[in-house]
Specification:
Oligomer: single chain
Low-confidence stretches: 283-287
Helix content: 25-40%
Shape: elongated
Strand order of the largest sheet: 1-6-7-5
Largest sheet: 4 strands, antiparallel
Number of strands: 10
Length: about 290
């Protein structure tokens, strides 16, 4: 799933390649991905893209002040850019393409989604705040106003595991499964720690780890075309998706805990006092 750093990379790329171009055509390949009907998607035809922005994991392409193309790539979505957009017709339901956007210099992009579970979402709105997911977003973790005290205030009193809190978009915008693993590893903190019970030093470590991890990842994504962003993300991971590999900090073996549709990775030595966390799914399989 693309998270804040990759989404920021896409926003920067679109800012360079799409802003200033005019949308000549949009083709919907998966009607279920289009979540709005007013304005219609063909209202974008002939509109000039004036800005590219990120809200959490949402990408917003603005066409003036009152027309915006907004999309969320969800778990298996991606943006595929073409300097020369293919002219083949999209057959709804027969392709991974959810939306194709053609620009007036013959370039353009497809929004694609792999797998059978379709969660990619596209909106055409007059105000990005009209998108429910954007309206619910918490603060961006890299904005200047989100300082250590603001972070501590979010944690205070919350009886919630810190892994889940970092991933909750209504609390903090843009962090997902992968970067929450990386942040907690950098902070030397168990993913099961309860947010509201962290002491001052733990809050300091976690805030510093969050800012440093995300800042470094955004810098790594900067200037890369969409085709290179996924590999750059994988290369930067210390523990996420590295089950069975040695921890780059201490050499212990990276462990996983599995859930219905995802897993989390951590280092027992760095994060949990050397104790593996219970994995209920594997425990059931061993019975």
């Amino acid at each position: 799933m693309p998270e804040m750093p990759e989404v920021q990379g896409l926003v920067a790329f679109l800012g360079e390649r799409a802003v200033g171009r005019t949308i000549t055509r949009t083709s919907v390949g998966n009607i279920a991905a289009l979540k709005t009907f007013d304005p219609p998607n063909n209202a974008l035809h002939g509109a000039e893209i004036t800005a590219s922005a990120r809200h959490g994991k949402f990408i917003v392409l603005s066409c003036g002040d009152d027309l915006h193309l907004v999309f969320h790539l969800a778990k298996a979505g991606w943006l595929r850019w073409y300097e020369m957009l293919p002219t083949t017709l999209i057959k709804p339901g027969k392709s991974p393409i959810a939306l194709r956007v053609a620009l007036n210099d013959d370039s353009g992009f497809d929004l694609t989604e792999a797998g059978t579970k379709k969660s990619l979402a596209v909106y055409v709105v007059r105000d990005p705040g009209d998108v429910p997911g954007i309206a619910r977003l918490g603060p961006d973790p890299l904005e200047d106003a989100f300082d250590r005290d603001a972070f501590a205030a979010l944690l205070d009193g919350r009886r919630m595991q810190i892994k889940g809190l970092l991933r909750d978009q209504s609390v903090i915008a843009g962090i997902g499964n992968a970067y929450s693993d990386e942040i907690l590893h950098a902070a030397r903190m168990s993913p099961y720690a309860i947010a509201g019970t962290l002491d001052e030093q733990e809050v300091d470590r976690l805030y510093s780890a969050m800012r440093a991890t995300l800042t470094d990842a955004v810098a790594e994504a900067s200037g890369k075309p969409p085709a290179d962003l996924k590999d750059a993300k994988r290369r930067g991971m210390q523990v996420h998706a590295r089950r069975g590999e040695p921890c780059p900090v201490c050499g212990d073996t990276v462990h996983s805990v599995f859930f219905a549709d995802r897993s989390m990775e951590y280092c027992p030595t760095c994060q949990t006092g050397g104790k593996p966390l219970a994995d209920r799914r594997l425990s059931r399989l061993l019975k």
